Amino acid sequence: MNYDEKCQLLIIGDSSVGKTxxxxxxxxxxxTTNYINTIGIDFFSKDEIFxxxxxxxxxxxxxxxxxxxxxxQGFFKSANGIIITYAVNDVDTFENLKYWIxxxxxxxxxNDLVKIIIIGNKIDLDRExxxxxxKKYAEDNGYKYFETSAKSGKGINESIKFLVQEIIDxxxxxxxxxxxxxDNKHDDDTISLDENKHSNNEKKCCx
Length: 207
Ligand code: GTP
Ligand code: MG
Known about the structure:
This protein is an alpha/beta fold. The chain has one domain (5-173): P-loop containing nucleotide triphosphate hydrolases (Rossmann fold, 3-Layer(aba) Sandwich). Helices cover 45% and strands 22% of the residues. The chain has 6 helices and 6 strands, in the order βαββαβααβαβα. The chain has helices at residues 19-28, 69-73, 91-95, 97-108, 131-140, 156-206, and strands spanning 7-13, 41-50, 53-62, 81-87, 115-121, 144-147. The structure holds guanosine-5'-triphosphate and magnesium ion. Residues 19-20, 37-38, 61 line the site of magnesium ion.
């Protein structure tokens, strides 16, 4: 099977906010309360249909721990989409969103081809961060906001599929623009050939 659209995602955020759990829920529909911290970087993938095409969604799962940050930032440039995650029961992880947003800017500049969402995870637990404040913060930074529970599965498919859909739509749009430009270029060629013919005739007539 050919997968002609590239869909490479990256998930970032503080340690223990539930990045690996979100991806395990999304790809295998499983959840465990055991915490095994990610070492460096890990890889998940899942096939889904978008716009009548089979898409292989590939996701880099990064370690939140500080000592791996230089390594994981090397993966930013290969992503079409980034999920920034915090846990709604831990306000420190929400405060740290500014660090993660800054690290995207540092690594990608103003590359608006990369689609980005923010996820507030662990909504099955008691909150330290209010939904409206988090949504406003995300939107003020230009990102769509979602809330999830990797434990119950709530919001997981919706949020990741929203991001993939945005990427596929944007790739389809670019492909259409490229196709139209190519078609127009052929039209230009036809005109210029006619012009050449005309000028040759003129030359013949007047020499
Ligand atoms: P690093 O790999 O260290 O960066 O952490 P991580 O962000 O991948 O966190 P991980 O998915 O390993 O989850 C950390 C802990 O939180 C685990 O004990 C999970 O079971 C728990 N956890 C993750 N998501 C949820 C959730 O939605 N609800 C609850 N109650 N616990 C969760
Ligand atoms: Mg992890």
